[in-house]
Amino acid sequence: MDIKWNEILITGDPLILGSQIAIVLTVIAIVGGLTYFKKWGWLWREWLTTVDHKKIGIMYILSGVLMFFRGGIDGLLMKAQTARPEMNFLDAQHYNEIFTTHGVIMILFMAMPFLIGLMNVVVPLQIGARDVAFPQLNALSFWLFFSGAMLFNISFVVGGSPDAGWTSYFPLAGKEFSPGVGNNYYAIALQIAGLGTLMTGINFIVTILKMRTKGMTLIKMPMFTWTTLITSIIIVAAFPIFTVALALMTFDRLYGTHFFTLSSGGSDMLWANLFWLWGHPEVYIVILPAFGIFSEVIATFSRKSLFGYKSMVVSIVGIALLSLLVWVHHFFTMDAGPAVNSVFSITTMLIAVPTGVKIFNWLFTMRKGRIKFTTAMLWALGFIPNFVIGGVTGVMLGMAAADYQYHNTLFLVAHFHYVLIPGVVFAVFAGLYYWWPKMFGFMLNEKLGKYHFWLFVIGFNITFMPMFFLGLQGAVRRAYTYSAESGFAPLFLVSAIGSIILALGFAVFCYNIYWSFRYAKRNVSSDPWDARTLEWATASPVQFYNFAVLPEVKEIDAFWHMKKRNSGLVLKEEEIQEIHMPSNSGLPFYMAVVFGITGFFLVFEWHMAAAVAAIGIVIGLIIRSFDYDDGYHVPVEEIKNIESKWRKVEGGVKHHVG
Amino acid sequence: MSANVNTSLPLEYQTEQSRLNILGFWIFLGAEIVLFATLFAVYGVLGERYANGPTPNDIFKLKDVMIETLLLLTSSFTCGLAVFEMRRHRLKGLLTWLIVTLLLGIGFLFVEINEFIHYVHEGATMQTSAFLSSFFVLLGTHGAHVTFGIIWAVMIIIQLIQRGLTPVTARKTFIISLYWHFLDVVWIFIFTFVYLKGMVG
Amino acid sequence: MEYKTNSKYPISHIIGFFLSLLLTFAAVFVALEAQLSFTIVMWIIGSLAVLQAGLQLFMFMHVTEGEDGKTNIINMAYSAFVAIVIVAGSVWVLTSGHAAH
């Protein structure tokens, strides 16, 4: 393809020009800052080459915050454009690009890294392990995800953003109707990030199945670990479908095949079919770990064990099967006939059952509990009513006949925001407030946290509740404007005002992170919430080897019972042995860079350059194959030193706040 | 982790890390099953959309397909023999059978590439019709896996020569043997649901 | 937890190989020589393929061996379930009812 060099950088739009200037300034500031404070070596040794699951988790979470910001700006721009009828703030093309990137970024580059980040930080600690099964692969997962996310994000300044919606339906997403590079970005950047996610799935399955500490049978695992296991299984079952779908999209766009085209026998609906075969399980991939977080938070702050642990396990295992059997409800209106639509209506009703079971379990966990209204608990409490609204409207949409009315309206948009924001974003916030002291050794400010909570929840409801009614009145999604005669204007305006409150809530969160980094008390105990699971049985922040001696587990909520019995908490010096740890490696970072470059060339269809860059991938694999680095051993003396430091401090493992 | 060595087990299972790797690879194979299933689903949907282009009966040649099938099937057998020799701690036997396996694999690729060139000369390309798009991508993905397997196996043969049979080299050999058998499993389904199905009608 | 290490001859491999050859040629015969309807042929050769895949899994790959034998079986069964859902589901959804026309 001929590339017009003068069109690579997007020019002419003041908003984008502003972003370009901001990006350049930020890069200069980061490079300058690192050089001035002589932090390059630190960055390389401590972060870019790390294989420590806790640091990788923190990098995931940081990426999540960054992407939340980017996706949030997209959302605010949309709300600004639709605040009044017939606005000219954004043109149709720009609006198309923004709702596309908003969707992709919020699902794949915000929700996923937040949850995978928390999984990384917490799961090895909860099962009493020193790291994940494949630490270097874990680093590769993160860097591939990051590489894909960055490649996707540069699209709006280099070459143009994808503009066919986050679902990228054909024929619109095909070469015929979208000739630019935007949708190449979609196909290739998501492919790279998806590879990383698949590896994460494999890694966590093996970690959880094989690396649990002595005595922790499957049925004694904390609920967050259970949901991570099932999520990982669904990742391994679903992501290869997306891999194939994206590869076929790439073939159609770059090499002229006819998978999804209108001509030569292609089937546009085959794309929708494959997309949702992955896409529906993907919803459960993000929602299950969130359920796990709520389970931990609710149990801790109700000071009771989780009600109905076994029914919870059965219902999430059931979801591993059912989540793959409902995908057609996303395109009932394709009209595959009454038999198909009926079957998928029924499976959709069925999958609401295990979720309902969980809601009751949480309610019964709180019943007669001595509830502590911490910020983390507030998020869990806020989740239940809001998520129920999302769930119930989902059942409405799941009825095939009724779906013909709701399809493609803002009702649907309101529904999935009511599922994903309470279900995932509230959970992420609950998890961050809850596990923050474990990650960093200080707590997020609870008072600011409550401002954050109330602004966010109120803003969320004001933003999305009107959209149910707009949808019922016939307002379609993805339309960049509407006429004054439509009568939609008041509700759109309310929704826009809500989005500002929502954004204020997020701003308070960012400020809270800043404030707490600067001013929060550093002498918090290693168990500030009087919690129940093993991650609280070690130091905060956690020492790099996690546990001096791996704990032994006898029952569910192991740490809680250890505290009750006052046993197993004191470290016996003679039990300390050398600890084997994996070495750092620059290879994952290198691979991500090479993947990113190869992807970039492919986006612009410079096939020779891409082929040359791909040689770098093969070289990386060969280097890895010949790498016999077996890690290193931490001497007993060093462990004793580290342990004596935190165990002597006031607020050791037996003490807690309040 | 590496301290946990159990010498009563076969070499490839002796260290904890090896057991993790082998289980991890099985789970990866689970993902590969889904990947190929998706390609088969695509072929199942598009496989009869010829768009006035050639049909399977026009282009498939039983002779080529049978040669490919027998080569790959035999290579799967010899690969099994290689692991069998490894379990008896016979490096020489292991290397011999591994190299035989590779030669059979290369033979398979050679015939398959010729088959594809032949199709293209007959005007049956990836761009001709949805049937051929899905055919070439399904077969091509399998062929790419075989190619990757050959390069990978060469790396392992080098390491076996350099280091001999150790728990680590044994584990690597065992894992590629799983991969190689798996490629034969995929081929069985290609043989049945692409070639034989195409030639029945 | 059983590993096949001590036998002198690779008996299970040889049996597996000959059975695979047999199944392959049987499939060719059924598909190309026996005069059966298309549906019956597909059912027979499909079953033969599944059988042969099973041979590879059990006789060559020793799927049940080792401390994770059970996990492997569950893993393969779940993958097979997902594979069937994807293939049968996609074909059904996209070639039946109104979608076929």
Mind explaining what this structure looks like?
The complex is a heterotrimer of chains A (658), B (201) and C (101). Residues 653-658 of chain A have low confidence and may be disordered. Chain A is built from 19 helices and two strands. Chain A has helices at 14-36, 40-48, 53-82, 92-126, 135-153, 182-210, 223-255, 268-302, 309-322, 338-366, 375-398, 400-406, 410-440, 446-472, 489-519, 558-565, 587-603, 607-625, 636-648; strands spanning 579-581, 632-634. Chain A is mainly α. In chain A, strands 1-2 form a two-stranded antiparallel ribbon. In chain A, 66% of the residues lie in helices and 1% in strands. Chain A is globular, with a radius of gyration of 25 Å. By secondary structure, chain B is mostly helical. Chain B has one domain: Up-down Bundle (Four Helix Bundle (Hemerythrin (Met), subunit A)). In chain B, 80% of the residues lie in helices and 0% in strands. The longest helix of chain B has 34 residues, at 130-163. The model of chain B has no long low-confidence stretch (mean pLDDT 93). Chain C folds into two domains: 1-66; 67-101. Chain C is built from three helices and no strands. The model of chain C has no long low-confidence stretch (mean pLDDT 88). Chains B and C meet through helix 1, helix 3 and helix 6 of B and helix 1, helix 2 and helix 3 of C. Chain A: It is a multi-pass membrane protein. Chain A: Belongs to the heme-copper respiratory oxidase family. Chain A: Its main location: membrane. Chain A: One of its GO terms (biological process) is oxidative phosphorylation. Chain A: InterPro entries: Cyt_c_oxase-like_su1_dom, Cyt_c_oxase-like_su1_sf, Cyt_C_Oxase_1, Cyt_c_Oxase_su1_BS, QoxB. Chain B: Pfam families: COX3.
